[in-house]
Amino acid sequence: MTIADARQRATALQLHGVLAHWAECADSPWLDPLLSWEEAERGRRSLERRLRCAHIGRFKSLADFDWTWPEQCDQRAIAELMTLDFLGSATNAILVGASGLGKTMIAQNIAHQAVLQGHTVLFATAGQLLGELAGLDSDSALRYRLRRYAAPDLLVIDEVGYLSYSNRHADLLFELINRRHEKKSTLITTNKSFSEWSEVFPNASCVVAMIDRLVHHAEILSIKGESYRRKEAQERATAKSRKRKAKESS
To answer: Is the dihedral of CA 65, 69, 70, 74 positive or negative?
Structure first.
């Protein structure tokens, strides 16, 4: 490490005391370990803070995903999303499929990977996000919350389509999508095709414009098949039935 490199690192870390006495400590053997310790600790604390603020929740790793279960699921496209290249071009990602096919788990894995790579992330269900925005009773509070949701490198809006929303909810979502359009990436999971979004936001005039902005630069992945959660529930029920019959026959 050169003295110039060390000074640059100390400046980036804002170690003003060290910089003020640079002539005295530039050649000291303890300087490089000190900078390394400080960088490592700040990196650890930054990661913890970003994970906490992301609100991703508990999730299964993609390594545990049963790729053979869905009738249609582009594993290569999902692996491409996990590289996070789409964040660099402010491209959106939209996962479309019925309930129980792993859309949320995939979104959580992408969000977690983004945090690990140093990006800011915010994960919320559509109900949480729109309920919070619509419940604010002042313009200043609403502007603040919209800025908060517009700021992250990746915003994940989960479960669009499971509830229906008013025109006000639709307008708020449109405002948020519009603020992020071509600036930051948004990942959406939905159980509805875009042709059915008029059922999610009935009578809302902004639905077409909202979809237009979402898909303008977007990777759209369709997942088809039967619910994996239902499959697991049936397997558990079958296993319990076998155990009960085994006890009765013994």
So the answer is: positive
